[in-house]
Specification:
alpha/beta, Heat Shock Protein 90, 18 helices, about 40% helix, elongated, binds zinc ion
Length: about 475
């Protein structure tokens, strides 16, 4: 059957119109997306504009801008070096090019963004003669001859400021072009990530000067167990290396911060294809051997004292030290605020009799009353009963010990502060005898003791001693 000629015309023209509409639609919706999502597209636009420029400018550009291929030691990875000698914004950028367009695109995005940021910073520089430069270098490493790691080091010099150095990395499977992210490396297991995070957090504090200068809040954020916090890594020399930008935790740190962990150490948490053939004696699963901590108990007897006890509390807080205060019952009611403060600041309160009597010389009834009344007033003020008991003059017998129901604690170092009343004699008395788990006897009713205490705490800290309560020392000796 033959169509009528006008039907034929109508059919052809509608096909034509449809094609035009589809074409326009693709142009309108597709093109802007392309421009926004890739920086390389905008660079193409810039180049297109540049060709319109006058001949003289174009020639000048040709002289300052050059891209050359440089030798690469890895098959399948070509290296290019782009140089601009433009005095207004000179730069030198080395970048790789592989058979994988997706990776190339990511690299060119990074390079272009870096350039644009550099150019806009240069524009903002007030002094046009200030020294400026952008320098991007690459370091390539291979692992098992399959996985390749590219580390970009970007250095920006702007005026008199120091060089700002930041990093970027890209790890990929050389056979497939697949990008390797931490999630793949650590077997898609969040628990593995948590183990890594715990280890990295502590490891970063080890280098000299880091612990003191690090901004812990920033560092905790940068090392938080989220996968994307671990994206900036490389596999170099059979080690997992994390790169950090200084701004992420402290500008006061000297050098470029990175954490390097042998893959053999990480074997238990790595996906099998990334595990190292090297066996490690210790791994990330090996329990951390705690450093033997040295501890001492500072004890203060015969208080509380309205002002001296308060001074002592402030010094203890300053050095994050805990102590035990053996209080005399009859002084508690009149100094309730101080007693409450002792408890509130996390120190231990002990019973030291009601009126500092020689308990072994009293009738058992009176001796027991000394203990009970003191327990009661301390409970009334703080809401807690004393957890330890120290008889005045250290004089005790079995009856007292049995009645106290809490540990009866004497001391191992007597500072004789009550006798010397000399702040400069406090530290030497301690220095001479100090050892782990010592219980040091002092009195918080002598001004000289409060005055000499800070030097004692400085010394103990330097020697690695932790100041804990008497009960903590007792617990460790069980
Ligand atoms: Zn006493």
């Amino acid at each position: 059957m033959k169509r009528h000629p006008w039907v034929q015309v109508l059919l052809l023209s509608s096909i034509f119109m449809l094609t035009v509409i589809i074409g326009m639609f693709t142009f309108i919706t597709g093109n802007p997306k392309y421009q926004i999502s890739t920086v390389s597209a905008s660079s193409e636009v810039i180049e297109a504009k540049e060709t319109v420029k006058e001949d003289t400018e174009e020639n000048a550009e040709k002289q300052t801008l050059s891209t050359v291929e440089v030798p690469s030691t890895f098959n399948g990875i070509r290296l290019f070096k782009e140089n601009s000698a433009d005095p207004a914004a000179p730069y030198s950028i080395t970048y790789p090019n592989m058979a994988y367009e997706k990776l190339n695109k990511e690299i060119s995005q990074y390079i272009e963004t870096s350039k644009q940021q550099y150019f806009s910073s240069v524009k903002q520089t007030k002094n046009p003669n200030a020294k400026k430069n952008l320098h991007i270098q690459v370091k390539i490493s291979s692992y098992k001859q399959i996985y390749y790691s590219i580390v970009f080091t970007k250095q920006i010099t702007l005026g008199g400021k120091n060089i700002d150095e930041t990093f970027n990395t890209l790890v990929f499977n050389g056979k497939t072009g697949e990008r390797i992210l931490p999630r793949i490396l650590f077997n898609k297991d969040v628990q593995n990530l948590q183990k890594l995070s715990t280890y990295v957090r502590q490891k970063m504090l080890e280098p000299k000067g880091y612990k003191e200068n690090i901004n812990l809040a920033k560092w905790n954020k940068a090392s938080y167990p989220y996968w994307d916090r671990y994206n900036r890594f490389a596999i170099e020399n059979d080690s997992f290396v994390l790169y950090y930008n200084k701004a992420e935790f402290s500008n006061r740190i000297i050098g470029s911060p990175s954490v390097s962990i042998p893959l053999s150490f990480l074997n238990p948490i790595l996906a099998s294809e990334f595990q190292s053939k090297t066996k490690s004696a210790t791994t990330i699963l090996t329990p951390i051997q705690k450093k033997p901590i040295k501890r001492v108990a500072l004890t203060f007897d015969d208080g509380p004292h309205k002002t001296i006890t308060k001074q002592i509390l402030n010094i203890l807080d300053k050095y994050n030290a805990k102590a035990t205060f053996f209080m005399v019952g009859e002084r508690v009611g009149g100094n309730a605020a101080v007693v409450k403060d002792v408890a509130a600041r996390g120190h231990e309160i002990g019973n030291h009799s009601w009126d500092h009597a020689r308990l072994t010389k009293l009738s058992s009834k009176n001796a027991q009353s000394e203990i009970t009344t003191t327990n009661n007033i301390i409970f009334k003020v703080t809401g807690q009963y004393p957890t330890v008991f120290r008889p005045p003059y250290g004089e005790k017998n079995k009856q007292l010990t049995d009645f106290a129901k809490v540990p009866v604690v004497l001391w191992t170092i007597d500072t004789l502060d009550w006798k010397y009343r000399d702040s400069s004699k406090l530290l030497p008395m301690i220095q001479k005898n100090i050892k782990n788990n010592d219980i040091i006897l002092m009195h918080d009713i002598h001004q000289s003791t409060a005055n000499g205490l800070e030097n004692v705490l400085i010394y103990l800290k330097k020697q690695g001693y932790e100041c804990v309560t008497v009960s903590e020392i007792l617990a460790s000796q069980k």
